[in-house]
Amino acid sequence: GENVEQHPSTLSVQEGDSAVIKCTYSDSASNYFPWYKQELGKGPQLIIDIRSNVGEKKDQRIAVTLNKTAKHFSLHITETQPEDSAVYFCAAGYYGNNRLAFGKGNQVVVIP
Amino acid sequence: DTAVSQTPKYLVTQMGNDKSIKCEQNLGHDTMYWYKQDSKKFLKIMFSYNNKELIINETVPNRFSPKSPDKAHLNLHINSLELGDSAVYFCASSQTWGRDNEQFFGPGTRLTVL
Question: How far lies B44's CA from each of A78, A80, A86, B58, B95, in Å?
Fold first, then answer.
């Protein structure tokens, strides 16, 4: 089955700086890559996703890039704010199949 | 106006007991899921139902039995609870099966087995 790994496990950044989280996946057939944000005491929430026919996608301060050859994808958060502090999960799946394999999560801490 | 709700939010029980967690979604979705999140935050799929039909059944002990009385509800019953069952259990739903739909998660149920 699909195996997704995330790095680093914890990331501390100064407010206003950028944060980058990287994920690698094992199954070259995976073609759907969502990112979920989990705030303390809450369930994960989708923040952005990308399909394998696209190399990059942006939504305001968040962007995701995908390198299919290397089988890795990254989440970029610019101009970080305290409310960005959370656990971020990457996942990989197949278009047409709802089964997602999640990474182990990254704790992002934005220092005011 | 809660989209995906779970009850109870916290559950503390003794080893060997049987307990249930209930989940309801008011989004009109066809597909529902149960995930287990361990103490290291690792999120793993357990079950998925589509239109009350079991679609995903991961390698989960048969002490765990999901039940979907209708499309809006997916309950999880756990028999003979063990220490290792302590975790946060998340229910989620998505619009339908067969597409990369966004999954909407509930607030979680923290289960502690003593």
Answer: 29, 28, 19, 9, 20
pLDDT in tens, B52-69: 899 888 878 999 999 999
Of A42, A89, A99, the CB nearest to B43: A89
Structure tokens at A28: 């070259």
Does residue B101 have a pLDDT over 90? no
In the prediction, which pLDDT does B96 show?
83
Work out the angle at residue A19's Cα, subtended by the Cα atoms of residues B103 and A90, and round it to the nearest 5 degrees: 25
CA-nearest residue to B90 within chain A is: A43
The minimal CB distance from B101 to the residues A38, A51, A98 is found for: A98
Q: What is the mean pLDDT of residues B5-22?
A: 97
A40–B contact, CB cutoff 8 A: no
pLDDT of residue A54: 86
pLDDT band for B1, please (50, 70, 90 cuts).
Answer: low
Burial level of A22, CB count in 10 A (0-12/13-18/19+)?
A: middle
> Which residue is closest to A31 within chain B, CA to CA?
B100
- CA–CA gap between residue B58 and residue B104 (Å, rounded): 20
Which residues of A fall within a CB distance of 8 Å from B31?
98
